[in-house]
Fold each of these.
Amino acid sequence: MNRRSFLQVSFPTSLGLATGIGIGPQLPPSRSWTIGNNRVKIVLSEEGGGGLSAFTDLRSQRNFIAKAAPLYRFLLFQKGKDLVELSSLDATTLSVERSVAVGGEKLTLTYGRHRSLDITAVCSVLLEADSPLSKWRISVKNNTPYGIRAIQYPVVQAPLVLGDSAEDDYFAWGRFGGQLDWKPGQSLPDRREKLGLILPHDLPEQSRAEFRADGGRGASPMWGWLPDQYPGIISLQMQAYYDGTAGLYMATYDGSGNVKHFGLTRLKDGLDISIEHNYDERPGLSFDLPYDTVLGIFHGNWYAAADLYKQWAAQQSWCARKIVERDDLPAWLKEPRPTLQYECRGDYQRGRGATTFPQSDYPIGRFWPAKKVIPLTREFVSIFGTPVVVWYNGWEQIGDPCGPVDIFPPLEGEESLKAAMADLSRDGYYPFMAIWGMHWCYKRSMAGYDGWAHFEKEGRPLAAINDQGEVSRYIAGNMEKLFVQVCVGSHEAQKLYTEWFSKLMDLGAVALEFDHQVGGYPAVCYSDQHGHPPGYGPWMHQEMQEFMRGTRQMARQRNRDSILSMEGVCETWIQDMSLMLNRPYGPHGIPLFSYIYHEYIPLLGGDGRFWVSHLEAELMLQTVNFIAGNQSFLMIGSTDYDFEANPNYPIFGLLRNLFHAQRTYARPYQVLGQMLEPVELKTSKIRMDEWLPPGKEVIDPPTVDIPAVMSSVWRSPAGKIGYVLVNWTGASEEVTLGLVKKAGTTSLVTAAERKQVTVEEVKFGQVTTVVPARSILLVEQE
């Protein structure tokens, strides 16, 4: 039987501001409410209007709250009005109820009207016995004409430094499939500025975190179209702030794809890592946020945090079927085979992001017209010893990226392009073509294209409208396209883009790529003409899912061997996509998405750059890509692959061995397996200069040590453990590998032989062996 205690504090509303909205006095800092178990203690303070003042790991006595803050913050929107911000400090009354049950403890906080607005809230936190995780819920009753655009809840303002030093402080989150920020409380803005990604919420000396949902206006023309939004470039709903002592785990357990924003903001007296909820912005809407926000403690690195998240994620609909169980994936995709990218316009290196966009976008004679890639492809098939997929870019009338109009007929002519694609298909090399996001491209100056008049006539009715009733204009890359977001909630827009995909199949495409819509993000829209509610809401996920499923169904009805892929990774689309483009090799990339979801969705990568200056940078890139569990995406126009200049470039030998391993003895692990936490691998390291972007060059460039042999650990569908080791260098390398298990048959497997490891070595828990140059070794434990 539950025992309950009840405490209520109330106070009157003060006079209003000039805006007409009253502000209530803050509560005196005299009370607090605590719940806890044998792992964690949670303290809510009256000083913060019921906000977190302590979230303490009892093992280490680490408090992850630097400063008491409001329990929640609201951002309200009404058309034609200024935005209004509220917090728990603005509530006129606060009641706190404690529930004690066998399963744990629960605090329920009930808030009265906020200032003069008839908005009330009920918040709760549940901490189960012996659990490291607390579960937070919020419901809002809204009797105003405002819509609730954003809720930061619970507000978490963590210390800028964990413990005595920031040297082992890390922030892990799902940005671009996994990102690890080192010393986030000290160096985050500097590192973002280095990459040209400084945004307003990164700037230091703020007193509170800005709301991230921008109403479709974008923080900047360059990057505003890619907010830290889920679904989108935020690939999963987890983040963790930790050091060598303890960590704070944060997640939302939402299986329905509701929009949220994740990330961190450096404040003058703390690091705000609150999760922002953008549930439903309809005016006057009351709602219960239909999922738990989870705060907990853990010990270890980001893998330990990911293990907590995986326990929940594995039960969600997007994990309904693993790759080995998915009959919606064609056999050729599971073989697998590498994808060769031919960029037939402008400077080839633009595809790698390693150069500014060309001033003029003429065809590249080596790859244009398309019939020229047929003999090249046959040569690469011979070199690599594997069938391939052919990604052909730049065929459009105005080059790429572009669309959805003024792209047909292809620059070389429709019949010519169709004939080339048909020849590739007859050879068994499936053509791969892309559309460039739900973006209406209105200008590509380097191709002589200005389509603003066309946009005004046909595109504006389909465009995503921002909260000011206008279209926001954006820039992709270095002026590679100027565009306006298209609203996925417009069924006319969905029809247009599905028809575009169908036209790609008319040209001969078998593999279809939804590019530039990174992570499948849905753009917010405030139009009253598209049939969806205005602003952020569940419709965004629902409409994007309808579009993806409809497009994929169309493609599979036309050709059972067809696939639909997208740029970026995001958990909610796993069962709706055939393939995802995954790049865990960026400056701060970690294989977080791969660690949680590799066995559910095929992943493709390798088209970017490895951030070192070295003749064998491409070998390192493809090695990292391989051990992350990706299929290979090769930039064939790069000089690394110019067999006419040198048929013995080292990349050819390495890739031939990689592809053989991937299609044979390493396939149950690297293609179909579940990624496990890595083990210790002792190998030599090679020091080299970092690659620095233009404008960041220095006399003495920073250096980085790259291991000669790289590795990853997997569990096969049959339950075996496989350690995949890749030596990218030109010399044999002796290594010592730690083992997960100290018993069972253990074998060393290469393309040439299988050799059993001695029982003594296995019992000792490590194997010492030699990995030959440019080769792949599998250590297999049954």
Amino acid sequence: MAETTEHTTAETAAPPEHAEPPSPPPPDEPKTARTMRFPSAFTVLVIVAVIVWVIALIIPSGQYRTTKDGAPIPHTYHHVPKPLTFGQSVNNLMLAPVNGLYGIKDAKTGQVSADASGELYGAAEVFLFVLAIGAFITVMMATGALGHGIERLAFNTRKKGWLLIFSIMLVFSILGSVEGFAEETLGFYGLIVPLMLALGYDRMVAVGTIIVGAGVGVMGATVNPFSIGIASGFANIGIGDGFGLRLIMWVVLTAVAIWYVLRYARRVRADPSKSLVGISPDDRQPLAAEPPALTSRDKLLLYLIALTFAFMIFSIMPWSGIFSGPNAAPYSWELDWWFPELTVLFLVATVVLGIVGGLREAELSQQIAKGAGDFIYPALVIVLARGVTVIMNNTETTDTVLHACEKFVTGASAGAFAIGIFIVNLPLAFLIPSTSGHATLAMPIMAPLASFANVDKSLVVTAWNAASGWMNLWVPTTAVVMGGLALAKVGYDKYLRFLWPFLAITFVLICAFLWIGAAIG
């Protein structure tokens, strides 16, 4: 989902019947795009795994002394003998994906293997959670309720262009913030592009409404399970930690995004010559016919979808810490749910949505399987990324890398550290546009650095998420951007020209928020 996030459910969100879908790109365009395509996250992670393995053979092994909670104690790093022979090291590389899924960390030796005794180190819980989310989203889209709701929203606000843009961007941003709504937006171009053109705007307004609307929600994610959830899990903190700062960031960044798109839209509507993409005579289409009114079933489904995410937020939030302080005992009604419970929540919600949505047993089973299949890619990316950390763990080089980073952050202020985490993650987000894979790879290294800089780990998660979301607004390695531009018939160069001032503004705002967050703790 910007995951930009990384899931693909556009097939289930077909353009509405009354809207004329955009014509497909020329036959030779996919071939050109394919020859220029950046390596996938799979390929990047395999290359990273081999590089990390080679480096682990060269650099010394080492360890930190740790607290009772397992946090490294600053300035206690010391070298230790290499724990693996060369043959064992080769075996460690070959079994990294397996151990990345269900490897167990031995309580005595600290080594990770599938037949050890100790705590789960692999990402099996996250793997199953991603598949459950995939099933939920696919069934949600298959019921058609969300698509019908967006259609009605668009039609009801059609005579007030600014309200239409505001409403759609706000809805998409909320969905991006709570569930990583990104690839799903591809199914709405057939509705929103003709509507924007009929209202006197250009195709760039439609692109900004969709990509920036959902993207800013992902960038300012509050409880997005694909980014905040997975990153928090590997940072060993709750998904609700840091929620207050992220909520404020989301409000401000969303407001700026809506203002930015509306500003361009007003300028183009007043003077079409200022359009960055131009407006051809064919773009001036009549308004689509009124879509059918929402049925009682549609309304119930929308309520159930909202209730599912609301209950997810309730179940994971550290309410006692919010209202009584960070050291307060949990309230009796706090659930303190995590990946196993959330997996069951979304599986149950999936079945309920399917039944209420009128899907027959065979169709519901098919959609659940399809959703899990669509999301197998991000799930496997997580496993591969976790496999890289297994290599580092078993060669005892994780602490060696931490020690090098400790020297870098020593003497830096908390604010400078937080901004540094944001900047360091920008190139990583380019290489691995999968937010969950990026989180799995980066958090085991970056989260412990918070102890060295005297900042909360939640700030590291917030900085990392902002970097991932900021990059996924424009990098050509994400299908959300390139696929959306192809559907809207907008050139990538023109999109960058439209977007770069917004990127500059949000870059400054994110750095300011991180600085303030570090200052107030």
Amino acid sequence: MKIITLKNQFFIFLLVLICNTTIAQWTAVTPTTPLTRYRGQTFVLGDTAYYFGGSPGYQYNGYSFVPGVNSSWTQQPTGTFTIANIPSTGSDVPFTFVIKDVAYLGGGANGGSRYNQFYQYNQNTGTWTNKASFIGSSAIVYAVSFSIGNYGYAGTGANGGAPGLNDFCRYDPAVDTWTVVASIPGARFGAVGFSDGTYGYVGLGLSVCDGSTLPYNDMYRYDPASSPPLGTWTAMASMPNQQGGEEAAYFVLCNKLIVTLGDTINNCGGNKNTPQTWMFDPTDGPVGKWSRLPDFPGTVAYCARGFAIGNTGYVEGGTDINTGVTTSQLWSYTPTLISVSATNVTICSGTNTLLSANGSSLYKWSPASGLSSTVTTSSSVPGGTTQTIASPLVTTTYTVTEAICGQYTSVTVNVLPSPTINTSGNTTICSGSTTNVSAFGGSVISYLWNTGATTDNINVSPASTAIYNVSAGNGLCSANGSVRVSVPVINISSHNATVCSGSSASLSASGGDSYLWSTGSTAPSITVHPSSVSSYSLTGTVGICSVSASYTVAVYPLPVISIGGNTSICGGSNSTLSASGGTKYLWSTGATVNNISINPTGNTSYTVIVTSALGCTDSSSVMVTLLPVIALANSQTICSGSTAQLSATGGSIYLWNTGATNNFITVNPTSTTNYTVTVSDGNCNNSAGTIVVVNPLPNATACCNATVISGQAVSLAVNPANTNNNYSWTPDTELTSNTIYNPMANPTKTTEYYVTLTDSNGCQKKDSVWVIVNIICKDIFVPDGFSPNGDLINDVLYIKTENNNCIQSMVFNIFDRWGNKVFSSIDPAVGWNGYFNNKLMDLAVFVYSLQATLIDGSSINKKGNVSLVK
């Protein structure tokens, strides 16, 4: 059953559900009594179609149509059937559905009025019975409807020009009651709806007539058994390549939906309808599938109506979008049979044939074995020829089925066996050898080798690895075979087969078991330095074969460079240097041309790198000398405060930037200074310069003056310290070291210490520091006894004092008891060891006398006895 709703402001989209085995064909039908109508509604009972209401003029009368040779539309109640007119005030765009061969009609409009009336039609009596009014959004037009089992469903649409609705209601004829069920996603009017007996489907349509909102291209499936009693809606596949449409005419064949004459934009004027026809198959995959069908060939109109009787669909009426005139066109849509053919129905094993089918637009092939594709689509719309490649291994019957109603046809591809062919022969030989290769197989009666030979075996002597192909035939089919005869080779490769003179080349051999190069090397890779074109040969082994190979290295000469130009010029003058011998040049100045202009400020070397046309490079240099040639030391280095002697030669007249006019000058700069001299030889003037670098003296001082008591050490230092400097202290006596920056001093008397600092530049600085020594003189006495027995305790008799430095001068004498002098000393550090005339004296008492002058100027005079004990 089909449900269509349409508003006169909108374009028509024809939806057709077909159950055909092939793609349908459109055919014009010419009734004996045509019907000129649009925007009505149809339903089908048995083999009769009924059209009620519609325009122009908001018609109430109904017509029936029975297809046949003398088919015609018959106004009711006269004619074949007695059918009453619609017993309601609404005649435009009502909704209809059929439940168990009983038709129902509801809703609709008359002018600006909308109605919710609902009636049941009795086909036997041709009468209408009033039933429970539709309870959706009150009175509606442009609604969709369908029936599932014992129930009818209606919903969507519009009410009084308002935007589209999304509510849905179920009608139960057993109790004459409407019940609200689940609303469809997306409010709309002018949608399409149909049922496959288990599910209902609603899609397309328009949400609002605002001139900008595009029509829907969606489709939803309604499942009444899910979440009863409301049911649920599930999104299905959307129509491709266009924005759907609204108010479509449609009919159902084999539970498939076909769409044509759709309004592709929202202009609410019915002048953008398309003749495209689409089929929706809800069973193709989990969300169904849309497929393109032949275009509608009649007048492109809107508000046409569609219906199906048996296996034929029909499209009736509509308003011509070009003229606005309501048409009486009636077109039937009948599937045609598909046909299949093969380029060759008999093939040899291993070959293929091309299978072609036509008459539909979507095909499915089976079985899948040996086919390049099992689902094919024709290359044109309406249906055309589609092809697949069959490569069966055995005789196979292929069936092609059109995807609409499942009709099919078949073709058998017979597969003849190909002859069996085998090849044999020695597949590896040494270069220069001969081998025999042969082909054989059952039922083979002829052979053809790629050498041209027609025997079953041939002798071959390939110079390199070769493949010998043979074709064998049995009179019906042929088979191909091949024999590969390998000739071992050794390959030599190089990344630089051509080198420039003086360069090297690396040669690498591969594929052998051993190698012997003409250079004597046995390594796989060698590096050679050819001076000219050279060929390097190699003898190696590959298995039992001895294999030779060679490689030629070409040698390109280096460019021969010549630099011309005046290389001796007066200072401040220009000159041009010109290089030749190549195609590319790069000077040390950065210039990339062969000629450069120079203006050197001093004697300068210019280098040019030249590249030849062969890509080899070399370089050459030239020295440009300024005249006169001045001999002048480049630089000198002195220490601050020193002088430097500068001497220039090469001319007769000299002028220094100091103002001096001699060739020899002495300078005493306080900082680093540049000195220039201009020299003239009578023809040219030239200038030269030198620099006198002045290094500062070490920035350090000796530290620090100190006063100490005799015998007390003191630290000397140079501040700041620098480990890179050298130090020399004087006097170096009584110092721990005279070469460090911080020695310890222990002078016995007041001393001035001098230090000379030499830094890394060789510059020196001298400084000094005083150490004043205070000597403290306490009691001076002579012990009254000593024991020179060699035990190192009191073995020597000394004058006892805190500091020997206290005594400036002295005379110390010792006498025996007879008055003989046995010892005398003028140094307090020299004492008596008890010996006289090299003989140790006996135990006795001796007399001493001491006369001394102290460092403070005072004098002492002492006498006394001293005992020698042992």
Amino acid sequence: MLPRPPSVVIEALSPLIEGGRYPIKRAIGEDIVVEADVFKDGHDVVSALLKWRKKGQTRWFETPMQCIDPFNKDRWSGVFSVFENAIYEYTIEAWGDYFRSWQHEFQVKFEAGQTELTSEILEGASFVGRAAKLAQDQGQKRDAERLVVLSDKIREGTPEIVNALAHSPEMEALMTAYADRNESAEYLLNPPPIAKLVELSAPAELSAPEPDAEPVANAAAPTSKGTAGKVIAFPTESSPSGKKGSAKKKKGAAEPARVVEEPASAVVAESTPPVPTTPAVQFTPRYPQVYVDRARANFAQWYEFFPRSAEGRGDKGSTFRDCLPRVEDAQAMGFDVIYFPPIHPIGITARKGKNNAVNCQPGEPGVPYAIGNRHQKCPNGGGHKDVAPELGTLEDFDWLVKEIHARGMEVAIDFALNCSPDHPYVHQHPEWFYKRPDGTIKYAENPPKKYQDVYPLNYHNANWRPLWEELTSVIEFWCEHGVRIFRVDNPHTKPVAFWEYLITRVQSRFPDAIFLSEAFTRSKMMKVLAMAGFTHSYTYFTWRNTKQGLTEYFTELTQDECAEYMRPNLWPNTPDILPSFLQFGGRPAFIIRGVLAATLSPVYGIYSGFELCENVGLEKKPWDAAAAVPHFLHLCDSDYKQLAKEEYLDSEKYQWKQRDWNAPGNIKEIITKLNRARRENRALQQLRNLKFQRADNDLVLYYSKMTAARDNIILVVVSLDPFHFQDAYIDVPVDEFGWLEDQSYQVHDLLTDERYLWTGRRNFVRLHPDKPAHVFRVRRKMHSEKDFDYYL
């Protein structure tokens, strides 16, 4: 049999990002639900398998898919789980199932009262006999013998016996395990053009190739004698170019979650009669991919502080060796990632002073983002592969990393591709920078802001390849020093292709590397950076304060396609951003934003000082926010410049920061309870289970998170008003929990340890500025004993 076009259509596969150009993302232990439309011409019954494997392997795991479209029977679904930090491939294989088509046809005729079914009985016996041969070829002797017996029973049986045998559990299981997949189709990202398939299939005397014809890139050649065939599916999605992967397997049986070998080619042919030799055509099938990160990519709580301010002294800087008390305080609050802003040498030329003053006063430490000082005689030249001497040595840094790891935590460092005028790159590779007409190097600008202490790199300069390789080697250098998490400063100002190259190369060597994109920019750029490989993404959370804004934005992040590749990492504050909501709302505002960040996403972080409710900004307008809260929230979202400059006064980007780490009014206890609730409740460790629920007050946000097994249910109720009491009736979705409307249950507030007994759907909450949120764990009443009720 010559190669032929596919006999089954497989299309509208999901999840699939940009036609398979980019992989979807999951973490170890997560499931991937795959759906597709699968159908064929005529009335044959279709069967389908979901297949997956680690990239580079030839053996597939597979599991049957289920039809989830009860009307048209075209939509199919399957699920698989991933358990290694690696790249996986997945696809769908489908075929017209001859046995089940016969099974259905025979049943219809039998139930219609037809008695002359001799031909149909012999046909069914032949299908079962063919399955016996397949079992024998696979070395499954007992199954083969049993199928032979069943084939004989069908051949010799009456219509009543045959119909019963055809639907017996034993027959169903065996015919599923040894299905005839000779004419199956496989979903590919790069299907061969049908015309080329037909052309290459034709006998030489009917279709001789042109004398100077070029080989066909997207087609498959016949293979050696005796090889079973696979037909490539022709999906309707576009097939953009991308990475290629090998795919070879032998014909295998379809069993739930079993391993099979792929045939030597995705399109092959039987070799009787012999086919005239044709030029070999190379074809490498491409499949959709999923990048599987380690668990911390999916669930983590970050704490950011400047090492030089670790002791909270305003008169001198701290060192790496002074950081452990700050690390242990963060650990006590429940954080597991310690994130350091840039730790590299700081330039002298055009060094900025306090509050971004153009002139730096003697003794001022400068801005850590102005990286590079070749005059300090650092071991690696004073650039991105060195630490600032005032913080200590590389050995001191290694010691601190080891101590943090010993406490079950990790270090994240800032990857800021800024070069001070004193950076060694400026003197060794001036061609890597932008030039003015007079030949001098341009400093960075974001009009009207000027950054005289920073030179931006030109990623498209004539000597760009060594630049890309050098910057990639910086990440690899710090990976070798025990760092696996990198927060990338302003990645949207560098080419997307550069990030795709860097992340791919680093993760090929260090697959556990995690990258956070700090891109507060256009939505499309934020999304494409996530597609290109960034593990986490900053979001617009900072400027989503209204009920409508939060609901719409987080529905998009958690329920739309971007949830397949973009993991939000929520920050209520950063060294660059002190939101207006915090400046005006005081301590209640910090509690509100902390609860939202910790419960809306499984990954969040705070910048040091948040736990102390630091909210003194550079410039705050005289605005009575409490008098018109809805309008205030609207301005926070859409026009914050009417309210304040969202920058810290006396920011520690420019100076050492004096602090009392246990100052009165801090919210460290609340943050500790939030992080404990996150660790102890699996529902808060997931992203795509967020669902907004109904509350009859526009200043109260209400949402739920629940595990698939419904054994961990969380309800979060948050006031968006930091100034006043707010009441609301909320609808508890007891039907989604699988409970009866009149059933009693307990809600346990994980922030206050208060417990309430509720019944049914509609219940009342009251929130006030000192306690502006509830994080309820919902427990169903299981049974009662005298004077005591049990809730689970």
